[in-house]
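Researcher: Let's do a round of design. I'm pasting the structure tokens now; please hold your answer until I've finished.
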């Protein structure tokens, strides 16, 4: 059984969030419906923001 993302160390959690951001962004690029595409792009941006804030909380000097 896989661990909850909340149980991962912050660096690994941030990486997982970046993977989710990349995946949702990739999905958005293939969508024909503009509203759905925009929703996926927004979701991708939120995953990316979460990754960045998680990384900063783990390593404030990291500019990833």
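Researcher: That's everything. Go ahead.
Model: Designed sequence:
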């Amino acid at each position: 059984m896989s661990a909850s993302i909340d149980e991962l160390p912050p660096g690994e959690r941030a990486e997982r969030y970046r993977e989710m951001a990349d995946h949702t962004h990739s999905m958005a690029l293939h969508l024909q419906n503009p509203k759905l595409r925009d929703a996926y792009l927004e979701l991708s941006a939120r995953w990316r923001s979460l990754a960045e804030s998680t990384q900063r909380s783990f390593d404030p000097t990291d500019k990833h």
